[in-house]
Structure formats: C-alpha cells, structure tokens
Design brief:
Strand order of the largest sheet of chain A: 6-5-4-1-2-3-13
Structural class of chain A: alpha/beta
Order of helices and strands of chain A: EHEHEHEHEHHHEHHEEHHHHHEHEEEHHE
Oligomer: homodimer
Largest sheet of chain A: 7 strands, mixed
Number of strands of chain A: 13
Distance between the termini of chain A: 36 Å
Radius of gyration of chain A: 26 Å
C-alpha cells in the first residue's frame, strides 16, 4: 500500500487559534508528523469556544486533529532549549517550523537556523510589520462587512466564519511544501513570511474589488442575499425553510425558467422593461423583478417538493440549513461521506470528525483522526525525536520543564 | 539569484470562476508556468463581475494573474487533441492538470493518463459525487448564514466573500504540491479529488460547530457583530466611522480597560452581576453590558483619536473600511506594501495588483504580474510546449482550432 503523501515530513508547530493550527493540520491530514508544542497548561486557545456541554473546548480539538502534542515550560531556558532542539532536529523531512508566535528572540529565524542551517520556517503575523491582527479585526478593513447584509442595514456586518484565517492556513501549507521542495533540490532552507492582512487584501484584489474601487470610484452597495452581477436570491418555502437559487450561467437560467414554467413571463418582462435577461448583466439589473416572479412558485412548495422538482434539471440551488440541520439532515455531512468518521475525543465524547477534503487517490483517504490531549505525546516525543533516555525524561517531568496529559 | 520556488513546474489549467483559477494562480505566483486553456471566446467566467467602467471583467484578470493563456476550440476533436497533448506533455515538472471541468470523456483521468502514466490531476467538483455546486449554493447548507446577521433578522444572510472557493483554491495548490512531491520520490502520479461541499463541511467541523450541534443539540444564535465566546464588538466614532474591538485574551482585555479607563466600572460590574470578567466566558456573558460601558468612550472620539489612543497599547482593534476606503486610506493596501504593485492591465487600465501573500525569502517576493489577454500566448505555447512548426500553427489558426488575443 502506498503511504500517505507527506508521511516522511515532520513539522514542529508553535501556534494558537485558527490559521497556524489549520496549516499544520492540513499537513497532518496528508500524513505529516506534526508536533504542536504548548506552554504547560495550554496556549491562548485552549478554552476557545464553542464548548462541549461539560465545558471543554471543541475548537481546540477541531484544529489539532492528527497531530502529536507536547507540553513544555516555554518560560524556562531548559524548556526553550528542548523546543529549539525539536525545531532543529535532523532528518531529511524534518527541520520545518510553523508558527504564529512572535518570531523574535529565541524563536527568531536566525537564532533557530544556528541549530539547522537548512531550516524551513513559516512565520505568520497579523500585519507585515509583525504587529498583531486577528481575523475579527482585519475583516472590517477589507470592505466586505460594509458590503454584507440587508439593503437597509445602517451598520457594517461581520462574518462569523474566520475566512481569512482559513485561507491563510491553506497558504501556509502551500508555502511550506514549496519551500521544502526547493530545499530538496538545492539544500537551501528559508524563512517564509505570511501576514493575515496581506492574505485578506490580496483576496480583495483577486476578486476584482480593488480594481473596481480604484477605476470606478464607487463601492457596490450591500444587497442582501442577491448575487453580485448575475441572478441569485433566496426564497421561502411553504414549510418554513429557505433555499438559495443561482442563475450564473445561461444554462442555469434556462433550467430555472423551464422547471418553474416562467419562460413566457420573462419573455414579457424583456419586452416591457428592456432588460436583456439572456445576459448576466441583464439578470442582475432585473433581479428584484425576477425574484418577485419566482417567489410564488417557492411559496407553494415544501423543501422536499423543491428538491424533487430540481433533481437532475441543471438548476443551481441549495437549501439553507442551521448547523444542527446540517448534521441531522445532510447525508454529505455524515458517515455516508468517507470524509467523515465518528471518532471518540477523550474527555468530550464521540462525534463526527472530518479528515482532509483532499483525496489523494494513490494512498487513499486517511480516515479522520482525533486530536491529541494536551501533552499526550510529551514522553514519546522526547524519546523518539530527541533521543532522550528514560532517566532524562523523568528528570524533565520532575522539574516541571515538561508535562504529560492530565 | 535564487529562482522562484516553483519555477520548474508546469501546470495546465482548465477552469472557470474562483476556486480552480485561484489554485492555479497560487502556483503561478510562486513561479510555476501555469497555462490556462479556454474555449475560443472565453469560458463561463469571461464576463464575471465586477466590471470596469468600460465593461470589461475585473474578476477574470484578478484570478488569472501571472498565467499564460491559450484559446482552443474544445468542441473540435483536433482542439481536444491539442489540450490533451498539453496535459500529457513531457518534462519532470510538467504533467500536472488542474480542473473544475467535468472530469469525464476526453478529460477523464484514465483517458488522460494514457498520454502520461505519471499524470498528477486535481479534479475539483461541487459535490463528492461530481454533481454541481457553487459557493453561493453550498454556503447556505453550512449553517453560517443562519448564524450571521443582526439579532432580530428573521432570514439567513449570505456571505459576499466566496470563502469556500477561496479555501478550496488553497487546498488545490497544497494537494498538487503533495502529489508532485510523491511523484518525484516514487514515479507514481495520481488523481486528486476535491469537492467544494467537503471543503465547506470539513471547515464547519474544524471550527467545532459540528461537534457543538451534535453534542449540545442547540445552535448558537445570531449575534450581530459580537464575537462568539469572548468579547468583541463594533462601535461608532464621532466622525461617522466604526471600529471593531476584540478582547480575546486577558492581555487584550486589560489593555482595553486601561486605555478607556474603565477598570473601576468593570470591577463594580463584577460585584453587582457576578460575571467573572477575567474569563472569556464571563466577558461573553456580559457582552451587552461591556459594550454599553465602552460605547461613550468611542462616541466621544474620532477614528484618528481612537487610533492614536490605541497605538502600541496592545488593544486589539481595527477600523471598518469600505473597499474604497481600503484603497484610499490604508497604507497596507498600497505600493508602500511590497505585496502590491500598480500594473497596467491591457484594455482596462493601471491599478493596484497583489502578488502572492507568501514571501519565500530565498528568492524574494515576485512582484505582481498582470493577467494574460485571452489567447495571448496561443502561438507561443503551441511552439514552446508542443513544438509545432510555424506552418502547423498557422494551419490551426486558419482552421479556427485555436485563436490568439483579439
């Protein structure tokens, strides 16, 4: 059987919250040995919400699945020395360090590469100058909150999903693989810098919003659940549910008209209003009219009737679901989908965990693995990575320099 | 000088919209030769909004920066043969195909690997079964729109940012580098499968929301611009601006109290209400009270006064900006930041373009490169990749099998 594609990589991770842990987990879920180190007692994210009914963080195990965990007293010189040895440890696929801790002092790249000259280090910061920024503070600066929400809302509206963190985590994984590839070919390690505000603002540009603001001088107005520049809107069904309908392409628009039997109405609309509904622009311009014409069709049907009517028609649509409905009703979010397994997380219980969305078919999909307990692998890591003897490891535990799982 | 880290990679991309083009662009911005092929006249995204004042898509050039472009008649057998030859072309770093086109018929993995046995192919789909799904239809299913918006809003609220697409693009880049790494070591190519709904639902799980729904049975309620499980909220300033304030960590909470001189009020609040404001939980429980106590401080100050007061204090905060304000006011989104360059996009004009947020320091940051014109590199690619003669290329143009830039 083929091994997982990154099975020979070892990544040391010093992290908290979303982006850096997600970057490490992306690599772990493709087979890498990812060792997260934390201050004894846990880092800043150890109690982050959401919580289990018993008060344990569900966030921490969510973002650290498939890793090993070591607890170290990072304030003690001997603890720092241990972490430095882990980061600089030998082996072709080792010597990779991912962190969103301040990359200065003992964690500066130049200090760490004295331990291993070809170190690959990905240093994640809030802003390019190293100053702090979190998803919740950078998102307001991007422009998206002012473009989000009902038309009559007078205030900007934040995203609940920490999207910039999530995008940044993926970029960290890409950057590490690119730098490790370069090292394999040339022997040269390097520092990778990655700032959250750069991730966010680059994406604003990638999506054309910077050019639009610069060239046009106007901001697109917030527009509820309408799609920008094409037709897309949400509709209520007669059983209290809602669906999102999208007609981005001509094919989707034709399918929607056919199933809802509205072609003749829209032909009439074109004649009366002059909107060219065969173009994305025209459908966007007429979006309120289109929505009003389609609304009765949805109001006369249940979600199941909508689902049946749209099956295999080419209509692009989806139901709105709460998190609870996602888990209870959607087979794609269940063990019917090989992405998910029900796994016991010690101290919390058994629940549905995802593996990597990437299925690299040579090795096959690695089933979801649980997160470690904080310090679960302290002893093992000191032995198998640093080669310490049982007596030395015992002394470190006794001195409080390291700790195991409690 | 060190070459860009992926300078020896060649990726053939058959794509439209966000996720697949972004995956290819992520690799192009690290130096890969990414060739996007399109149907003559352009794909489904060729006119996607936002548009320039002259009506050109700003979206398309945003997501295809630094690539080469070839226009081919994909309906003609000879056109398909040319694309097949591009995908299967020889070279150690070639033989990589990224697509969100249906991976069947002539674009099926098994058909393509007859041209190159070690082909690495990343096939992106909407759902794992290959059925269609776009960001705007999968987002409603995740649970986030029901958790987004003002407390009194009765309907779900979509994200304007296609976050799942953006996350998926990063995963595609990671998956390709992982598979190419495996191929370098073993000679074995492989198919990578990646579904948008898997990307979305995995992230819902990673953030603890699946576990919360399963174990707790309750959905968190929408909560405006409050942070979940800690203190974070937005405030108006006296000059009509707004700021987001976050006190996730104890240090941030202390800094916020110190600058706003509210310690004694919050001490009193603890005594009266019993909220333990030293914990994230306690601050979340008291969030409305905390916001009410802080509000007058912001209402008495301008954005600049807030900025000055918070400078170097450790308070975690950020201003809300429209897209226009981001471009006009924020030095991080300007040529002062090496991420950005002002580049002329032919047919549109000069505007601010981002390069890769990843700075791999060995080679240094590659400045932002513009997008190709559709078909700009048709002739060049037929020559330098497929080795066709001038006469053969001329015949393909004459027959309408390929087209250049218009």
């Amino acid at each position: 059987m083929t091994a997982q594609p990154l099975a020979d990589l070892r990544v040391i991770e010093g992290s908290a919250f979303v982006a850096a842990p997600l970057g490490g987990m992306t690599l772990a879920q493709l087979g890498a040995d990812v060792i997260r180190f934390d201050q004894v007692g846990g880092g800043l994210d150890v109690n982050r919400w959401p919580l289990s009914p018993s008060g344990e963080s569900l966030f921490w195990p969510g973002l650290n699945k498939g890793k090993r965990s070591i607890q170290v007293d990072l304030r003690a010189p001997e603890g720092r020395e241990l972490v430095g040895e882990l980061i600089g440890s030998s082996g072709e696929g080792a010597g990779i360090f991912l962190t969103n801790f301040p990359a200065r002092g003992w964690l500066a790249y130049d200090a760490l590469r004295e331990r291993r000259a070809d170190l690959v280090m990905c240093a994640m910061t809030g802003n390019p100058d190293g100053s702090s920024e979190v998803d919740y503070t950078v998102n307001p600066a991007t422009g998206f909150p002012w473009a989000t929400g009902p038309r009559d809302l007078a205030v900007p509206l934040n995203s609940v999903l920490p999207a910039w963190d999530a995008i940044m985590g993926g970029l960290a994984a890409t950057g590490i693989l690119a730098a490790e590839r370069h090292r394999t070919r040339t022997g040269e390690g390097q520092l990778i810098r990655l700032a959250l505000s750069d991730v966010a603002f680059a994406m604003v540009g990638n999506l054309g919003r910077i050019a639009e603001a610069q060239l046009d001088g106007q901001d697109a107005e917030r527009d509820g659940n309408y799609l920008y520049g094409a037709f897309g809107h949400d509709f209520a069904t007669n059983d209290g549910r809602r669906v999102m309908i999208v007609a981005l392409t001509g094919r989707q628009w034709h399918a929607l008209q056919e199933v809802t039997q509205t072609q003749h109405v829209f032909e009439g609309l074109t004649t009366v209003t002059g909107h060219d509904l065969s173009s994305e622009d025209g459908r966007f311009g007429a979006r309120d009219l289109i929505a009003a014409i389609l609304r009765p069709w949805f109001e006369a049907r249940s979600l199941e009737q909508v689902r049946d009517a749209f099956a295999d028609t080419g209509v692009s649509w989806g139901p709105y679901q709460t998190f609870h409905q996602l888990v209870d009703e959607d087979p794609r979010c269940s063990v019917q989908n090989p992405l998910f397994s029900t796994v016991e997380q010690p101290g919390i219980g058994a629940y549905l965990m995802p593996g990597s969305p990437l299925e690299l078919t040579a090795a096959g999909r690695q089933p979801a693995r649980r997160a470690p307990l904080l310090g679960e692998h302290t002893e093992e890591i000191l032995g198998d990575v640093l080669g310490l003897s049982g007596a030395e490891i015992g002394r470190l535990f006794d001195a409080g320099t390291v700790a195991g799982a409690s």
